[in-house]
């Protein structure tokens, strides 16, 4: 597996397995399959509700913990210094580990600064090998890089041929921040798996459009997190290190950029309100569960 070097010298696999929307029932089996296929970067999050299943798979896999690059993310309801710090400890407990390779702030809202200070202190204590952010658009990323003691090492963003994040990639490079792609296939939206340009380039190299998309991002220096619950697709997605896209190929893919999210815009005020409502709803559900449990 090829790696990239983060700004603090930590080596991180350039391709990993993400478990977003992988159910608790399937997660353990999927992570075991991914590790068996050769994946060594596993990406989860508190809000995915499958950290325990990821931890169980790692424990059963026979792969040494130090050979796995394990990522999780702090969710909004745990922002602020004390809550974030406690939530990271809880994530480690669920994952069955006493350290994390990378911990991200999942969203750019609420008391992100307080949560970041918690990650900085855990990083200083050696509990987290690298810290970063997720869904921080270019202005918020630059702000965060300039107004914190430790510059983020990674920014995980939606990055695919229809939303290429070229400006973000340029500014991330200025600050030594690695861009990491969630939804590198755009979940197939916009017809990416059937796209004529990607299909043509793939045919030239004997590869699928999905493999072309992954290779394209890797050649841009972007870490990729493809997800599939099917072992054969996992194997296909990791089989992208035996070919190279030409400059012409890269230019043709660059021309596909619409600079538009295939999902939602974190700068949309209505979307910010949606996130706030979700946090409040989860708090109510958690308080209700705690109250019932106390009975």
UniProtKB/TrEMBL annotation:
<dbReference type="InterPro" id="IPR020471">
    <property type="entry name" value="AKR"/>
</dbReference>
<feature type="active site" description="Proton donor">
    <location>
        <position position="48"/>
    </location>
</feature>
<keyword id="KW-0560">Oxidoreductase</keyword>
<dbReference type="InterPro" id="IPR023210">
    <property type="entry name" value="NADP_OxRdtase_dom"/>
</dbReference>
<protein>
    <submittedName>
        <fullName>Aldo/keto reductase</fullName>
    </submittedName>
</protein>
<dbReference type="GO" id="GO:0016616">
    <property type="term" value="F:oxidoreductase activity, acting on the CH-OH group of donors, NAD or NADP as acceptor"/>
</dbReference>
<comment type="similarity">
    <text>Belongs to the aldo/keto reductase family.</text>
</comment>
<keyword id="KW-0521">NADP</keyword>
<dbReference type="InterPro" id="IPR036812">
    <property type="entry name" value="NAD(P)_OxRdtase_dom_sf"/>
</dbReference>
<feature type="domain" description="NADP-dependent oxidoreductase">
    <location>
        <begin position="21"/>
        <end position="257"/>
    </location>
</feature>
<feature type="site" description="Lowers pKa of active site Tyr">
    <location>
        <position position="73"/>
    </location>
</feature>
<dbReference type="InterPro" id="IPR018170">
    <property type="entry name" value="Aldo/ket_reductase_CS"/>
</dbReference>
<dbReference type="Pfam" id="PF00248">
    <property type="entry name" value="Aldo_ket_red"/>
</dbReference>
<feature type="binding site">
    <location>
        <position position="106"/>
    </location>
    <ligand>
        <name>substrate</name>
    </ligand>
</feature>
């Amino acid at each position: 597996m090829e790696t990239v070097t983060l700004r603090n010298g930590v080596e991180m696999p350039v391709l990993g397995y993400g478990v977003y929307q992988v159910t608790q029932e399937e997660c353990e089996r999927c992570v075991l399959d991914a590790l068996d296929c050769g994946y060594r970067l596993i990406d989860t999050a508190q809000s995915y509700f499958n950290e325990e299943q990821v931890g169980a798979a790692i424990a059963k896999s026979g792969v040494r913990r130090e050979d796995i690059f394990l990522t999780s993310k702090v969710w909004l309801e745990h922002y602020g210094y004390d809550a974030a710090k406690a939530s990271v400890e809880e994530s480690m407990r669920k994952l069955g580990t006493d350290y994390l390779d990378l911990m991200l702030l999942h969203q750019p809202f609420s008391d992100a600064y307080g949560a970041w200070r918690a990650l900085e202190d855990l990083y200083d204590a050696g509990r987290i090998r690298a810290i970063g952010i997720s869904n921080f658009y270019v202005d918020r990323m630059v702000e965060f890089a300039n107004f914190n003691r430790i510059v983020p090492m990674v920014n995980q963003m939606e990055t695919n041929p229809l939303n290429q994040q070229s400006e973000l990639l340029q500014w991330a490079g200025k600050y030594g921040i690695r861009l990491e792609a969630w939804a590198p296939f755009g979940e197939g939206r916009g017809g990416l798996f059937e796209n004529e340009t990607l299909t043509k380039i793939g045919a030239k190299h004997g590869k699928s459009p999905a493999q072309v998309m992954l290779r394209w991002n890797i050649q841009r220096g972007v870490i990729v997190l493809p997800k599939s619950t099917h072992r054969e697709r996992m194997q296909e997605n990791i089989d992208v290190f035996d070919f190279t896209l030409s400059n012409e190929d890269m230019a043709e893919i660059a021309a596909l950029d619409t600079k538009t999210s295939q999902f939602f815009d974190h700068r949309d005020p209505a979307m910010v309100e949606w996130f706030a409502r979700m946090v409040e709803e989860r708090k109510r559900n958690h308080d209700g569960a705690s109250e019932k449990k106390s009975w």
